[in-house]
Here is the input.
Amino acid sequence: MKRKAIHFFVAAAAVIFIQSGLRAELLFLKDGSILKGSVVEETASSVLFKSEKTVRHNRNSILRISYTDTYLGRQYVKKNNGESFLAYIVFEDGENYYFRRVLSSVQEFTLPMDEVMFFCRVHPLNLRARPSEEGVELVWDPPFNRVVEFNVYSDDGSGQFSRIAAVSSCSIIIRGLLPGKKYRFRVTAVDEESVESEFSNTVSSAAGDVIPAPLKIIKLEKREQKNAPGLFVQWKGVDSPLNAGYIIYSETDSSTIKIAETGETFYELKNLRRDKDYYFRVFTAGKENNESSGSLEFSLIQRVFFDIHVTGGVSIPVGAFTDFTSTGYSVLTDVTMGIPGLGGFRFGIKSGYSSLGESDDSMYREHTSVPLYLTLQYGFKIFNLYEMFPYIDSGVAFNRLVYDDNGDSSDGFNYLTEEGMQMQFSAGVVCKYNYSRKNYISLFVQCGIIMESRPKSVVTAGLGFGVKI
Here is the structure.
């Protein structure tokens, strides 16, 4: 990132050499303007500079001449102390960066190079086009700085880009495109100061040319290497005239990085860190700088993780229990832990609250339970984003029973209460849909048994949500 530049200081006794055709990338004038072109001639008092026009500039009007190709777009600058700002980097002298808040202003400020952690451009990154039956889906990564909205531009073959949408998220589906017609797309970011960035990379796609996604993961194997672990993955490919190979991305919560393109249906990832979890996706690459809308996800989990799952459902007594109670509800929360090396096994604790109503012609008016379980689960993937988790629970429950000692449910004056701890077991299955890497919604069904002199059974079914940490 360090770029060399020559900064001319004019001394009274100095003799400046003259060289016809000397190349200069940028000429900075003291009125704030910046010209791009080449030096035609230099003297001690003036510079003949060719840009759109060839003009002789007095030395007194020149701030500096830069002989390297300097990027003059707005950039996000991160300092070592955590502070950040947006500015234009216009020059560096080996020790300091020179910044302008407004590119056309001569006002500048400096920052020592060793105080800067990094700087980067502020336009959207890694724009991808994914044609589907609905149209063309565009997906991109945001820049580091805060963004108010993204402007989406399209070229329908005329050679001119025009804005077609403004969105706050990092994706959009472009509908209403003519089937088979090729379109080009690019995106800009608008920051909090209403400054629009430069364009992202340009992608192209024909509406309706749906690129089939890879079918399934066939083999996923962690491979121990000399200094770092690796991961071998193999997938079932697709046979399509639109298939130009496959693209593998590494994903984090905030970015997507392309790490490989291959014409094979397998790949080996090397030199991975042992203290980090990795998430990857493989897409089918198209022939128009686009990719499939669907993908396969695979991962390498190397750290202990926790799963917090909250459910709510309808509880229905079965068997002899229906003589005493009626349908009620249940709310449960389980916290499970996964350990690398144990496959899909997870274990943890579960607790909650359930309540059953009174049954017709029964002396029982209310039955509530507060269980505390140890839970053992085993998860496996059934589709790309869906997982199945059979489980068993074992523990105790604090049960509270309210009944009428006269045996007449119409009499509301002689209620008695019995409370106590009983052993309780349950087994069931949860189906999870992972709508993001850390979050999911679930559908579950379970059967629980209260161990009394006459065991009582309850079937519960419902919905839930969870988060992985």
Q: What stands out?
A: The two ends are 36 Å apart (CA to CA).
